[in-house]
Design a protein that fits this description.
The complex is a heterodimer of chains A (about 110) and B (about 110). Chain A has about 110 residues and is an all-beta fold. In chain A, the strands form 2 sheets. In chain A, strands 2, 4, 5, 9, 10 and 11 form a 6-stranded mixed sheet that branches. A 5-stranded antiparallel sheet of chain A has the order 1-3-8-7-6, with no helix packed on it. Chain B is mostly beta strands. The radius of gyration of chain B is 13 Å and the shape is globular. Classes of the chains: A mainly beta (about 110), B mainly beta (about 110). Chains A and B meet through strand 4, strand 5, strand 9 and strand 10 of A and strand 4, strand 5, strand 9 and strand 10 of B.
Chain lengths: ~110, ~110
Protein backbone atom coordinates (compact mmCIF):
# COMPACT_ATOMS: atom_id res chain seq x y z
CA UNK A 1 0.00 0.00 0.00
CA UNK A 2 1.12 3.58 -0.54
CA UNK A 3 2.80 4.97 2.48
CA UNK A 4 2.85 8.63 1.64
CA UNK A 5 1.76 11.59 -0.33
CA UNK A 6 3.45 13.73 -2.94
CA UNK A 7 2.74 17.30 -3.79
CA UNK A 8 2.04 18.92 -6.02
CA UNK A 9 0.17 16.31 -8.07
CA UNK A 10 1.12 18.20 -11.20
CA UNK A 11 3.63 20.90 -12.02
CA UNK A 12 4.07 22.93 -15.21
CA UNK A 13 7.19 25.04 -15.62
CA UNK A 14 9.15 26.84 -18.31
CA UNK A 15 12.37 25.36 -19.62
CA UNK A 16 15.28 26.63 -17.54
CA UNK A 17 13.23 27.02 -14.36
CA UNK A 18 13.63 24.87 -11.28
CA UNK A 19 11.09 22.23 -10.28
CA UNK A 20 10.51 21.22 -6.68
CA UNK A 21 8.32 18.39 -5.49
CA UNK A 22 7.70 17.06 -2.02
CA UNK A 23 7.07 13.64 -0.56
CA UNK A 24 5.80 12.67 2.87
CA UNK A 25 5.80 9.27 4.48
CA UNK A 26 4.17 7.82 7.56
CA UNK A 27 6.58 5.51 9.36
CA UNK A 28 10.28 5.37 10.14
CA UNK A 29 12.39 4.54 7.14
CA UNK A 30 15.73 3.01 6.26
CA UNK A 31 16.05 4.91 2.99
CA UNK A 32 14.04 6.82 0.42
CA UNK A 33 14.46 6.62 -3.34
CA UNK A 34 13.30 8.84 -6.17
CA UNK A 35 12.32 7.58 -9.61
CA UNK A 36 11.32 9.05 -12.97
CA UNK A 37 8.79 7.46 -15.30
CA UNK A 38 8.26 8.62 -18.86
CA UNK A 39 4.81 8.00 -20.38
CA UNK A 40 3.99 4.81 -18.49
CA UNK A 41 7.29 3.14 -19.23
CA UNK A 42 9.69 1.57 -16.73
CA UNK A 43 11.03 3.43 -13.74
CA UNK A 44 14.42 5.10 -13.91
CA UNK A 45 16.27 5.23 -10.61
CA UNK A 46 17.38 8.76 -9.80
CA UNK A 47 18.79 8.85 -6.30
CA UNK A 48 18.74 7.07 -2.95
CA UNK A 49 19.05 8.92 0.34
CA UNK A 50 19.59 7.07 3.59
CA UNK A 51 17.84 7.89 6.84
CA UNK A 52 21.04 9.30 8.33
CA UNK A 53 21.61 11.65 5.40
CA UNK A 54 20.06 15.09 5.04
CA UNK A 55 20.97 16.09 1.51
CA UNK A 56 22.26 14.46 -1.63
CA UNK A 57 23.15 15.72 -5.10
CA UNK A 58 23.36 14.06 -8.48
CA UNK A 59 23.93 16.28 -11.47
CA UNK A 60 20.97 18.69 -11.65
CA UNK A 61 19.12 16.82 -8.92
CA UNK A 62 19.11 17.72 -5.25
CA UNK A 63 17.28 15.61 -2.69
CA UNK A 64 16.70 16.50 0.94
CA UNK A 65 15.40 14.35 3.76
CA UNK A 66 13.88 15.55 7.02
CA UNK A 67 13.19 12.52 9.20
CA UNK A 68 11.69 14.67 11.98
CA UNK A 69 8.98 15.81 9.55
CA UNK A 70 8.93 12.51 7.65
CA UNK A 71 9.36 14.33 4.38
CA UNK A 72 11.67 14.57 1.41
CA UNK A 73 12.00 16.94 -1.51
CA UNK A 74 13.38 16.62 -5.02
CA UNK A 75 14.71 19.69 -6.79
CA UNK A 76 15.47 19.66 -10.50
CA UNK A 77 17.49 22.69 -11.51
CA UNK A 78 17.60 24.29 -14.95
CA UNK A 79 14.84 22.03 -16.26
CA UNK A 80 14.77 20.73 -19.83
CA UNK A 81 11.97 19.43 -22.02
CA UNK A 82 13.39 15.94 -21.50
CA UNK A 83 12.61 16.25 -17.76
CA UNK A 84 8.89 16.01 -18.61
CA UNK A 85 7.83 12.87 -16.74
CA UNK A 86 6.20 11.56 -13.60
CA UNK A 87 8.35 11.49 -10.49
CA UNK A 88 7.81 9.06 -7.63
CA UNK A 89 9.30 8.79 -4.19
CA UNK A 90 9.48 5.36 -2.57
CA UNK A 91 10.42 4.60 1.00
CA UNK A 92 11.80 1.46 2.54
CA UNK A 93 10.79 0.99 6.15
CA UNK A 94 13.34 -1.57 7.18
CA UNK A 95 15.82 -4.06 5.93
CA UNK A 96 13.14 -6.02 4.08
CA UNK A 97 13.79 -3.72 1.10
CA UNK A 98 10.10 -3.40 0.23
CA UNK A 99 9.21 -0.04 -1.29
CA UNK A 100 6.09 1.99 -0.55
CA UNK A 101 5.42 4.50 -3.27
CA UNK A 102 3.99 7.98 -3.15
CA UNK A 103 1.25 9.02 -5.55
CA UNK A 104 3.69 10.78 -7.86
CA UNK A 105 4.13 14.25 -9.32
CA UNK A 106 3.63 14.87 -13.04
CA UNK A 107 6.07 17.47 -14.31
CA UNK A 108 5.61 19.23 -17.65
CA UNK A 109 8.46 21.38 -18.92
CA UNK A 110 7.34 23.85 -21.58
CA UNK A 111 9.80 24.87 -24.27
CA UNK B 1 23.45 -1.37 -11.98
CA UNK B 2 21.74 -4.61 -12.95
CA UNK B 3 20.22 -4.92 -16.40
CA UNK B 4 16.68 -6.25 -16.20
CA UNK B 5 14.53 -7.46 -19.06
CA UNK B 6 10.89 -8.47 -19.12
CA UNK B 7 8.86 -10.47 -21.60
CA UNK B 8 6.44 -9.73 -23.09
CA UNK B 9 6.66 -5.95 -23.19
CA UNK B 10 2.93 -5.75 -23.79
CA UNK B 11 -0.01 -8.03 -24.45
CA UNK B 12 -3.73 -7.90 -25.03
CA UNK B 13 -5.57 -10.85 -23.50
CA UNK B 14 -9.12 -12.05 -23.24
CA UNK B 15 -10.84 -12.30 -19.90
CA UNK B 16 -10.62 -15.68 -18.24
CA UNK B 17 -7.19 -16.48 -19.69
CA UNK B 18 -3.78 -16.37 -18.00
CA UNK B 19 -0.53 -14.64 -18.89
CA UNK B 20 2.95 -15.44 -17.64
CA UNK B 21 5.46 -12.59 -17.45
CA UNK B 22 9.17 -13.30 -17.36
CA UNK B 23 11.85 -11.26 -15.61
CA UNK B 24 15.52 -11.86 -16.37
CA UNK B 25 18.46 -10.18 -14.63
CA UNK B 26 22.01 -10.10 -15.94
CA UNK B 27 23.53 -10.88 -12.54
CA UNK B 28 22.60 -12.88 -9.47
CA UNK B 29 20.42 -10.98 -7.03
CA UNK B 30 19.00 -12.02 -3.71
CA UNK B 31 15.97 -9.76 -3.49
CA UNK B 32 13.45 -9.61 -6.32
CA UNK B 33 9.97 -8.14 -6.23
CA UNK B 34 6.87 -7.82 -8.41
CA UNK B 35 4.84 -4.61 -8.52
CA UNK B 36 1.65 -3.54 -10.24
CA UNK B 37 0.82 -0.11 -11.59
CA UNK B 38 -2.83 0.37 -12.43
CA UNK B 39 -3.74 3.01 -15.03
CA UNK B 40 -2.93 6.50 -13.79
CA UNK B 41 -1.84 5.18 -10.40
CA UNK B 42 1.34 4.64 -8.47
CA UNK B 43 3.06 1.31 -7.88
CA UNK B 44 1.85 -1.32 -5.43
CA UNK B 45 3.93 -4.25 -4.25
CA UNK B 46 2.44 -7.63 -5.16
CA UNK B 47 4.97 -10.02 -3.65
CA UNK B 48 8.55 -10.88 -2.85
CA UNK B 49 9.89 -13.58 -5.16
CA UNK B 50 11.91 -15.94 -2.97
CA UNK B 51 14.46 -18.20 -4.56
CA UNK B 52 13.73 -21.84 -3.87
CA UNK B 53 10.61 -21.22 -1.79
CA UNK B 54 7.11 -19.84 -2.07
CA UNK B 55 6.67 -16.15 -2.74
CA UNK B 56 5.60 -13.83 0.06
CA UNK B 57 2.42 -11.95 -0.87
CA UNK B 58 1.26 -8.54 0.29
CA UNK B 59 -2.19 -7.91 1.65
CA UNK B 60 -4.77 -8.09 -1.11
CA UNK B 61 -2.76 -10.41 -3.35
CA UNK B 62 -3.04 -14.19 -3.33
CA UNK B 63 -1.05 -17.03 -4.82
CA UNK B 64 -3.97 -18.48 -6.76
CA UNK B 65 -4.35 -15.23 -8.69
CA UNK B 66 -0.67 -14.29 -9.00
CA UNK B 67 1.49 -17.43 -8.83
CA UNK B 68 5.21 -16.61 -8.85
CA UNK B 69 8.20 -18.79 -9.58
CA UNK B 70 11.85 -18.06 -8.76
CA UNK B 71 13.92 -21.03 -9.87
CA UNK B 72 17.28 -19.26 -9.53
CA UNK B 73 18.90 -15.95 -8.63
CA UNK B 74 18.55 -14.40 -12.09
CA UNK B 75 15.02 -15.31 -13.19
CA UNK B 76 11.42 -15.08 -12.04
CA UNK B 77 7.95 -15.36 -13.52
CA UNK B 78 4.64 -13.83 -12.51
CA UNK B 79 1.41 -15.32 -13.82
CA UNK B 80 -1.79 -13.31 -13.87
CA UNK B 81 -4.52 -15.95 -13.73
CA UNK B 82 -8.16 -15.92 -14.79
CA UNK B 83 -7.83 -12.34 -15.94
CA UNK B 84 -10.52 -9.70 -15.82
CA UNK B 85 -10.43 -6.12 -17.16
CA UNK B 86 -9.48 -4.95 -13.65
CA UNK B 87 -6.13 -6.71 -14.11
CA UNK B 88 -5.21 -4.29 -16.90
CA UNK B 89 -2.02 -2.73 -15.54
CA UNK B 90 1.70 -2.43 -15.97
CA UNK B 91 3.52 -5.22 -14.15
CA UNK B 92 7.13 -4.58 -13.14
CA UNK B 93 9.81 -6.68 -11.54
CA UNK B 94 12.57 -5.14 -9.47
CA UNK B 95 15.85 -6.16 -7.90
CA UNK B 96 17.82 -4.78 -5.00
CA UNK B 97 21.49 -4.00 -5.29
CA UNK B 98 23.97 -4.28 -2.38
CA UNK B 99 23.77 -0.48 -2.16
CA UNK B 100 20.04 -0.86 -1.34
CA UNK B 101 19.18 0.82 -4.63
CA UNK B 102 16.20 -0.89 -6.23
CA UNK B 103 16.06 -1.12 -10.01
CA UNK B 104 13.05 -1.90 -12.12
CA UNK B 105 12.51 -3.77 -15.34
CA UNK B 106 10.89 -2.01 -18.32
CA UNK B 107 7.47 -3.35 -17.38
CA UNK B 108 4.81 -5.44 -19.10
CA UNK B 109 1.72 -3.52 -20.19
CA UNK B 110 -1.28 -5.83 -19.95
CA UNK B 111 -4.69 -5.05 -21.40
CA UNK B 112 -7.55 -7.41 -20.68
CA UNK B 113 -10.58 -7.25 -22.94
Amino acid sequence: SQQGEEDPQALSIQEGENATMNCSYKTSINNLQWYRQNSGRGLVHLILIRSNEREKHSGRLRVTLDTSKKSSSLLITASRAADTASYFCASSRSNDYKLSFGAGTTVTVRA
Amino acid sequence: SAVISQKPSRDICQRGTSLTIQCQVDSQVTMMFWYRQQPGQSLTLIATANQGSEATYESGFVIDKFPISRPNLTFSTLTVSNMSPEDSSIYLCSVVQPSYEQYFGPGTRLTVT
